[in-house]
Design a protein that fits this description.
The protein is mainly α. It has one domain. 69% of the residues lie in helices and 1% in strands. The chain contains 19 helices and 2 strands. Strands 1-2 form a two-stranded antiparallel ribbon. The chain is globular and about 60 Å long. It is a multi-pass membrane protein.
């Protein structure tokens, strides 16, 4: 496997660190902003309240990202993790918000975060449920589940009137080709900055074609001070139950993301590491509720950045946290990044997410494909893809089922864990599992250094 350009504890030069941190910001910012926009739109909130939610989401994501990367006592996994608002909570948030308003969402999230905080103490036992075969399936499913997101971006954004237009696809392909060229033929820092180079090239192309919309930039306030408890809080029992279920689902997804990150950074993830990471997710979501942000979780898409660039430094991603914090305090900065057209993000995103898939395939190649393991891999990926590609599959089932099994990552992960427990012969695979913990994700840009 190719060496990393920068390992987890490495501290790149300052300018290098800035450019590398900017890549993670570009990969995460759209997702962080999207959740409060979706919730605000569904609840028909006035514009000033939607802006308050967005600013709080950026601020909370930035602070918790720093803690996750740097660590504070037993809190924080101390790896390159970007935290952000999670779509896993959107369904619960909207259902609670329609009846109890934003105050009900925030209060339910604060109470529900206790599920994740308490769950963190059981992570050493949960870690044993993820031998190498299961982890390989989870990493692969994370990448496969993100591919449709990149495709929607490349096509111009889901619901756009120009979805799939030749112009959008041409821009996305141009960015993808530029990223591939920089990774393949660039050297050292240039190769590691392939995402920034690709997005910058696509952005300049869109500027020249008059496709950049600066409306949000002109409307964004220059500065926005934090407004803790701005919406107030209420604690409806139904909302707490819904959010608690969403937090249980997020424990599974975050565990998978941490395992994928361990493979990408070439650092095995122990049960103790998982405990610190999940504890930060839980405390981070509680803090987010206090500053009026939707709940947070670890972003899987940023694992793709690590995989593609070979930059695993947690100090780089901690600076991304600082950038997110500043974007929350100075919304005009975040609004400038949001002007990047979605096809540009799609071209880069397709490469990033496909790298996670590639890493999963690489890990699967080291699995001993007995009949038992073949069943685990085939059934789990099949079930995960069923939900990913046809989410309407669950539309006739109770809302509870949709809440728990609406994510392909969750379905694939749970299927793999359950089959691994039920099918006989699991102990015979322990040696393979131990060997597989040192597998990595994909070929990195460190190869070019």
């Amino acid at each position: 496997m190719a060496p990393l350009l920068f390992k987890v504890e490495d501290r790149p030069p300052r300018l290098t660190t800035f450019l590398l941190a900017l890549q993670h910001l570009l990969a995460a910012l759209g997702g962080i902003i999207a959740v409060p926009l979706v919730i605000g739109g569904a609840l028909k909130l006035p514009p000033d309240q939607v802006v308050a939610l967005v600013n709080a989401a950026l601020l909370g994501s930035g602070i918790v990202t720093i803690i996750q990367c740097k660590g504070v006592g037993p809190v924080g996994i101390r790896m390159p993790c970007v935290m952000g608002t999670s779509f896993a909570f959107v369904g619960a948030a909207i259902s609670v918000g329609i009846e109890h308003g934003v105050a009900g969402i925030l209060g339910s999230a604060l109470a529900g975060s206790l599920v994740m905080i308490l769950g963190s103490f059981f992570m050493p036992a949960i870690r044993k449920l993820f031998p190498h075969t299961v982890t390989s399936v989870v990493v692969t499913m994370i990448g496969l589940s993100l591919i449709p997101v990149a495709i929607d971006w490349a096509a111009g954004g889901h619901g756009s009137s120009r979805y799939g237009s030749p112009g959008n696809l041409a821009i996305a392909v141009t960015v993808l080709a530029l990223v591939v060229a920089v990774v393949q033929w660039g050297k050292g820092m240039l190769s590691a900055s392939a995402i920034v180079v690709g997005i910058a090239g696509g952005y300049l192309l869109c500027l020249a074609l008059g496709l950049v919309d600066f409306t949000q930039f002109h409307q964004a306030p220059i500065i926005a001070l934090p407004q803790p408890l701005h919406f107030g809080m209420s604690f409806p029992i139904s909302g707490i139950v819904a959010m608690s279920i969403a937090f249980l689902v997020t424990i599974v997804e975050s565990t998978g993301t941490f395992m994928a990150l361990g493979a990408a950074t070439q650092r095995p993830i122990s049960g103790k590491c998982l405990s610190r990471g999940i504890l930060c997710d839980g405390f981070g979501s509680a803090f987010a509720a206090l500053v009026c942000s939707p709940p947070l979780s670890t972003f899987a898409q940023n694992v793709g950045v690590v995989s593609l660039t070979g930059v695993a430094s947690r100090h780089v991603v901690a600076l991304t946290g600082v950038m997110l914090l500043l974007a929350g305090l100075f919304p005009v900065l975040g609004a400038l990044v949001v002007t990047i057209p979605q096809p540009v993000l799609g071209g880069a995103g397709l490469m990033m997410f496909a790298m996670i898939v590639s890493g999963g395939i690489q890990m699967l190649s080291t699995v001993r494909f007995t009949q038992r393991n073949t069943l685990i891999v085939a059934v789990s990926i099949g079930c995960g893809l069923a939900v990913t590609f046809r989410p309407e599959l669950l539309s006739k089932l109770p809302a509870f089922v949709n809440e728990v099994f609406g994510s392909g990552i969750t379905v694939g992960s749970l299927s793999a864990v359950i089959l691994n427990l039920l099918l006989p012969g699991g102990k015979d695979e322990e040696q393979t599992a131990d060997e597989g913990q040192h597998g990595g994700v994909g070929t990195t840009a460190g190869e070019a250094a």
